Each structure stands twice: as structure tokens, then as C-alpha cells.
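Whiteboard transcription, Tuesday session. T.W. wrote the C-alpha cells on the left side:
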């Protein structure tokens, strides 16, 4: 199964609109997925409590957007990094002629795990 690349623009739009959503979508590392979840919870909490403290709804929206911009850039970079990981993996696989890096077994197609030793080949 060929690996699906992440669209950096979609990741950016996600995190701009919903904090952390782009990070979860890009899923570049487990840490960033966790960061995305924390941001998402923060976003929900903010939406819930902000109207109690900030009477002007435009100000509530302005803060949402101001925080969303750097998160959009962050998610954009995450998606790029995720795609780069796939690309490096593909280059490496071509270089070694599609053999398992752990046991040297010849691999048919593009398996996620080595059928011989079970090593994870795709991540
Ligand atoms: Zn192997």
C-alpha cells in the first residue's frame, strides 16, 4: 500500500480554524499528535469560557484568528515534514533495492512489515 501524503494547505486551514486539528491530521510524530489534542481541548475550552469574560464577540473571534495563524504555519510544516519522512523512506527503499533493512529478505510490493522478520518497514 503506497503511503498517503498529507496536504500542507489542508493542515494549515485545519489548525487555523480549529486549534490542533492540523497537527492531528499531519500526525508527524506521536508528540505532535498529543500537542494537537491539547490544543484542540484548549480551543474548545476557550470557545466555552471566552464569551463569559469577553463581551465583544468580535474580540473573541479576533483572538481565535490570531492564535490560529501561527498554528496554521506549524501544521503546514508538520505536513511537509511528514511527506519528507515518506520521501526519504522511498529513496532509501530504492537505494537498497527493496530488501528488508533488518534481515535482508527480498520484499514484494510495498509491505508495511517484513514477512520474514516482522520488522516495521513503513512509518
Ligand atoms: Zn526482515
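and on the right, the sequence the group agreed on:
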Amino acid at each position: 500500500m503506497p503511503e498517503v501524503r498529507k496536504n500542507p494547505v489542508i493542515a494549515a486551514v485545519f489548525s487555523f480554524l480549529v486549534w490542533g486539528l492540523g497537527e492531528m491530521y499531519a500526525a508527524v510524530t506521536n508528540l505532535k499528535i498529543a500537542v494537537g489534542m491539547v490544543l484542540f481541548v484548549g480551543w474548545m475550552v476557550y470557545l466555552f469560557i471566552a464569551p463569559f469574560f469577553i463581551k465583544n464577540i468580535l474580540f473573541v473571534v479576533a483572538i481565535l484568528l490570531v492564535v490560529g495563524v501561527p498554528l496554521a504555519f506549524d501544521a503546514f510544516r508538520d505536513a511537509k515534514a511528514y511527506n519528507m519522512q515518506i520521501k526519504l523512506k522511498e529513496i532509501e527503499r530504492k537505494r537498497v533495492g527493496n530488501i528488508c533493512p533488518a534481515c535482508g529478505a527480498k520484499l514484494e510490493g510495498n509491505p508495511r512489515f517484513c514477512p520474514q522478520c516482522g520488522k516495521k518497514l513503513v512509518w
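Someone added at the bottom: Residues 8-95 form one domain.
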